[in-house]
Write a structure and sequence with these properties.
181 residues; alpha+beta; seven-stranded mixed beta barrel; 11 strands; 22% helix; 40% strand
Length: 181
């Protein structure tokens, strides 16, 4: 059940951090009506994004609803076209989010799972795990654990991951559009 929490509609900063704690990506959004067990932040097309790892700045060309379950080792980016058509649900294997007054940050654990409507889930960025092992940032055992987690997510019936749940995210998107009107 989605309810309006205090602070809903306020600007929030989102920061993805690399496993070593260095800033990976940064952007902003608007706090969406959320539940007590998760935070959701909406970012419209045109939102500036700083990709520190690649040293580039760009703007989103789609809506992004970032969902941070408070007691899970993943977060979710649900992406939509400007007209509200579902693009994908991108699940980051990550440490639990750290929440401050108007920001959320998380330490990314390399491997991710992409759910696209009408397609099988795709596990991506396993090459980054291999590189982390080669650089001594990650043990082989930890790497296997992260890949196993990604496979569990890909096979999961968790509704937050499924494109069929896109309506829930679309409802959050609609709330943003109404607020901007």
């Amino acid at each position: 059940m989605i309810s309006r929490e205090p602070g809903s509609g306020s600007r929030w900063v989102l920061e993805a951090r690399r496993y070593d704690g260095e800033l990976h990506m940064r952007w902003e959004g608007t706090l969406a009506p959320s539940r007590t067990d998760l935070i959701a932040v909406r970012s419209p097309p045109g939102t500036p994004v700083r990709h520190e790892t690649r040293g580039v700045d760009y703007r989103l060309d789609h809506w992004c609803i970032a969902v941070f379950p408070m007691n899970a080792d993943f977060n979710i980016m649900a992406d939509f076209t400007e007209s509200g058509q579902p693009l994908r649900v991108y699940v980051n294997v990550a440490e639990r989010p750290k929440v401050a007054a108007s920001s959320v940050s998380w330490r990314d654990c390399w491997v991710d799972v992409i759910f696209t409507p009408g397609a099988k889930p795709e596990i991506v960025d396993t090459d980054e795990i291999a590189q982390a092992c080669a650089e001594g940032l990650l043990s082989t055992r930890s790497a296997r654990d992260l890949v196993r987690i990604a496979h569990v997510i890909a096979a999961s019936d968790e509704p937050l991951f499924r494109p069929s749940t896109m309506q829930t995210y679309l409802d959050l998107l609609h709330t943003e559009r109404v607020a901007r009107s």
